[in-house]
Amino acid sequence: MKNDDDKRFDGKKPTKRPPARKVLEPVDTAKGERIAKVMARAGLCSRRDAEEWIAAGRVAVNGKVLASAALNVTEDDKVTVDGNPLATRERTRLFLFHKPRGLVTTDRDPEGRATVFDHIAENNPELPRLMSVGRLDINTEGLLLLTNDGGLARVLELPATGWLRRYRARANGVTDQTRLDTLKKGVTIDGIDYAGVEAKLDRVQGANVWITLGLREGKNREVKNLLEHLGLAVNRLIRISYGPFQLGETPEGTVEEVKTRVLADQLGEKLALEANVDFEGPVIDRTPEPEPEFFAAKGAQKGPRPPRSPETIKPHRATSEERRPGGPKKPEPRRHVSALRDDRVKAEKGPRR
């Protein structure tokens, strides 16, 4: 008996296999958005996490469990995750974060190092789930853009968007402006092509030099690789701007939100359409409720403590006086002060002889 592969060599058309059963028929690709993208826009997870959740059978559309992320959904579709309805999409928001050194730009670090998002969740619990626009190395500090909109993050980090990223680098070694100008034409290092970079020598500080660089690609370790190509060893790197947004005086480790009007103006109509931003959606208040007054910090004005429950009140224990035969000794009647004075005088004179 010949299989389908054998029939191909016989000149006969292979028999049609029955189509595989699909959990859910995809909708018209011209309508709606990919399910993973919708989940990311809702602030539930990243696209990668959404695809993993779908593969694990945790996501359903219109009551049918998805087997693949290759599906478009519209506003009319009912999406559930672990049986819970997908949250309403929030307004597109952008934040400026002054990243300190020592934080990893990732959701989960397999080595257990502190992450940017751990820091924000601890210090700014009122913020929505955020994702970064690009990344900064663990030892790179400065401006990191954060947003709750995966579409906006994707558009802003593309080199085609053309937003300039500026860095200040301190590097050990000797160079001059002429050598830095050679980076304008672009270079190839270890088989990787780097586009032209603007580099300006700011000042010499002992054995180090301070350089300001402007680049538009943002490849992995690009600044360090370019300066190492010139014989310089970078020992400090600070991102000072990303497109029109500046680090400015933002304190280290803090987050500042860009006003919606400013964000809309800076994006313009073209980028806003490409990112499919939503400036009319709601803003969900996640501010934690204040602790009860009786748990207030030491030194603060405290309210009354709550009454103790009967289970925590210890029974009364009888004293030694109460356990004496006949009960406790009755107190003597109170005496006038003059009588007490006479007793004291008699005690001082002593008994008569």
Automatic annotation (TrEMBL):
Annotated spans, Disordered: 1-22, 295-353
Catalysis performed (reactions): a uridine in RNA = a pseudouridine in RNA
RNA-binding S4 domain mapped to chain residues: 33-92
Pfam families given in the database record: PseudoU_synth_2 (PF00849), S4 (PF01479)
One GO term (biological process): enzyme-directed rRNA pseudouridine synthesis
InterPro entries: PsdUridine_s_RsuA/RluB/E/F_cat, PsdUridine_synth_cat_dom_sf, PsdUridine_synth_RsuA/RluA, PsdUridine_synth_RsuA/RluB/E/F, PsdUridine_synth_RsuA/RluB_CS, RsuA_PseudoU_synthase, S4_RNA-bd, S4_RNA-bd_sf
Isomerase is among the record's keywords: yes
Keyword check for Magnesium: no
Residue stretches of biased makeup (Basic and acidic residues): 1-13, 311-353
Keyword tags: Isomerase, RNA-binding
GO function terms (MF aspect): RNA binding; rRNA pseudouridine synthase activity
Signal peptide: none
SUPFAM superfamilies recorded: Alpha-L RNA-binding motif (SSF55174), Pseudouridine synthase (SSF55120)
EC number(s) reported in the record: 5.4.99.-
Family (UniProt): Belongs to the pseudouridine synthase RsuA family.
Protein name: Pseudouridine synthase
Species this protein is from: Rhodoblastus sphagnicola
